[in-house]
Write a structure and sequence with these properties.
Distance between the termini: 41 Å
Order of helices and strands: HEHEHEEEEEHEEHHHH
Structural class: alpha+beta
Strand content: 15-25%
Radius of gyration: 17 Å
Number of helices: 8
Largest sheet: 7 strands, mixed
Helix content: 25-40%
């Protein structure tokens, strides 16, 4: 990752802070892995980050209150703000090539593909994200307070959604394997226990497909039931 991209990432975090949104979003996706290393949360972990896409998960549709104006502030500061032509999702781009997108947890059995949020952006609706919101960690990166998923929640989530990731499935699987030695298996077991029966089935299917690279917690634990 170039110094220019790191500086660009920092400027995006500053934008979100100044818009009053830092407590209402969290970094997910590959850039969370970057923060695991850079902040010392996972000592010795070395992520392989090749993407310029930075994903933020909006924690709550109706927070902050009153609503923030993140998109407007981004425009005022020279960022390029667009809406995805397919679904209207807000995209914020900068000159270093980073593209910021926003996600939000699906609500019940709703069929919405996007939702307008009080952060001031339109976010793409995603399922199976609740675990990340429930289990997060605050880290400090170049004087920015940033929220990321607990690494164990991040990995469990990635295993749940792996089958639906298409061409990105193998890349995600390698990321899971790279993170695995640094994780707390007690937390893995706890988070597996919070999944639905269908989600746990997806995790077992994923792990069975990776041979002996990954090992489940002890048989009989909540996550393996």
């Amino acid at each position: 990752m170039s110094t220019k991209q790191q500086e660009s990432f920092s400027s995006i975090l500053k934008l979100i802070e100044d818009a009053g949104c830092s407590r209402h979003v969290m970094v997910v996706g590959s850039w969370a892995e970057y923060l695991y290393r850079e902040t010392g949360l996972l000592k010795g972990f070395d992520p392989n980050i090749r993407t310029l896409d930075v994903d933020f998960l909006v924690k709550n549709l109706r927070r902050p209150n009153p609503a923030a104006s993140l998109s407007l502030l981004a425009k005022e500061r020279g960022f390029i703000v667009d809406a995805d032509y397919m679904d209207g999702t807000t995209k914020i781009n900068d000159l270093a090539g980073l593209e910021v997108e926003f996600l939000i947890c699906a609500r019940g059995k709703g069929i919405e593909q996007t939702l307008r949020t009080n952060v001031g952006v339109t976010a793409q609706v995603m399922r199976h994200m609740e675990l990340l919101v429930r289990h997060s960690v605050d880290v400090t990166y170049i004087n920015h307070l940033v929220t990321v998923p607990a690494p164990e929640a991040y990995v469990v989530h990635k295993m749940v959604i792996n089958k639906s990731r298409g061409v990105k499935a193998e890349k995600d699987a390698r990321a899971i394997e790279a993170l695995w030695p640094y994780l707390d298996m007690r937390k893995i077991d706890q988070f597996l226990g919070e999944l639905s029966k269908r989600e746990r089935s997806r995790v077992r299917e994923f792990m069975n497909g990776r041979g002996n690279v990954l090992k489940m917690p002890d048989e009989g634990a909540a996550g393996t039931a």
